[in-house]
């Protein structure tokens, strides 16, 4: 679990700002829900035989003896919150949330025990148009952050529950013949969760899968049409993708569409954004059958990617545009002037020297703030209602202006 320090928070705020701005432009609304939920919620939604539920959850009994879990993901919580507050009845929803998720994993670059997601969930829309919309939305996020040329979209269809069950039997029949050659995890999963074998990282297992039955050949007609419809919409929108028939997600609730945005820039932690359709989940959690599709973006990985490809905008960590140097007994005038500038010129980030210090000492602080301009107020200036303007990073001659003229001049800098 990491601290986010002031040196890094501007980059996070920038990334979060780009994402939430795009979400608003698509008409998505924010929802917030607690970071703890009953353990049952995750067991019933994500599935008992998944990595998350089997070995990654932070679960504890509270003082009443109720089993609670720090949320490992947001979809189940979002469904719970919507259901409990009547948001799914006879209406559609386009929602997003942002916040920490918790999984007890082995920490490494791009994999942490507290990490952060921006999640998008939509409810009540069953056609492939909404699948396409959330993919366009995710593509726009990656494009506007400047990382799109370093990621690749992979899509697949997991079909209906029945199609998946049929496929599972075919896969298990095939893999049982080569059982001895599978990696240890996959051997275990052959009984418990055979679809997960498809995304085994083991090279030998992957080679064995080359001749295995393919999920896309087992699709039911409705899922097949849905997938064709989605591909047509993506083609028409000019979104490039790769159909990856071995893409299965690690959570049980997905059906039909599944997708991931992957990158080669972050080592083993290659998935930046992942999601899909989960038409069965609302009903499974006690609501009325409700079609749904969504995705989660791993913010740490997105930020790492922006850094890795050097797409960080310049001047992001600049604390102030203007620094007010105030030397001598001028605190009252300095504060009044600063507040007036903030009233009249709200676009300026203005920092005022506090805690005294001589000119040299204050100019050091001005420099460290990243400001381009220093306003200098000494006792003589303060008495005359004047200040000096000094460019900190350009060779421009210092000039003395009245407060009014200084404000008019600062206004031209917007
Ligand atoms: P992975 O295969 O990398 O473990 P996952 O399939 O478990 O990912 P999801 O549950 O689909 O991931 O979560 C969506 C996104 O959240 C991931 O694509 C990734 O960007 C991010 N994510 C998941 N787990 C972590 C983690 N432990 N640390 C940082 N980011 C994570
Ligand atoms: Mg995982």
Number of domains: 2
* Beta-strand content bin: 15-25%
CATH topology title of the largest domain: BirA Bifunctional Protein, domain 2
CATH homology group of the largest domain: Bira Bifunctional Protein, Domain 2
Record field, number of beta strands:
16
Shape: elongated
Beginning-to-end CA distance, first to last residue: 40 Å
Low-confidence parts, pLDDT < 50 over ≥5 residues?
A: none
Helix/sheet category: alpha+beta
- Percent helix: 25-40%
The CATH class label of the largest domain is Alpha Beta
Main attributes?
414 residues; alpha+beta; BirA Bifunctional Protein, domain 2; Rossmann fold; 2 domains; eight-stranded mixed sheet; five-stranded mixed sheet; 15 helices; 16 strands; binds adenosine-5'-triphosphate; binds magnesium ion
Structure description:
36% of the residues are buried. A hairpin with a 7-residue loop joins strand 15 and strand 16 (399-402). The protein has two domains: 9-159 and 219-308, BirA Bifunctional Protein, domain 2; 322-411, Anticodon-binding domain (Rossmann fold, 3-Layer(aba) Sandwich). The chain has helices spanning 9-25, 39-46, 51-56, 75-84, 128-144, 161-176, 184-192, 203-209, 221-236, 281-284, 299-308, 331-344, 359-368, 379-384, 403-411, and strands spanning 29-30, 36-38, 59-61, 67-70, 93-102, 114-123, 151-157, 242-243, 255-263, 271-277, 292-298, 322-326, 350-352, 373-377, 386-391, 399-402. With 414 residues, the chain is an alpha+beta fold. The strands form three sheets. The chain has an eight-stranded mixed beta sheet with strand order 1-5-6-11-10-9-7-8. Strands 13-12-14-15-16 form a five-stranded mixed beta sheet, sandwiched between helices. The chain binds adenosine-5'-triphosphate and magnesium ion. Magnesium ion binds next to loops.
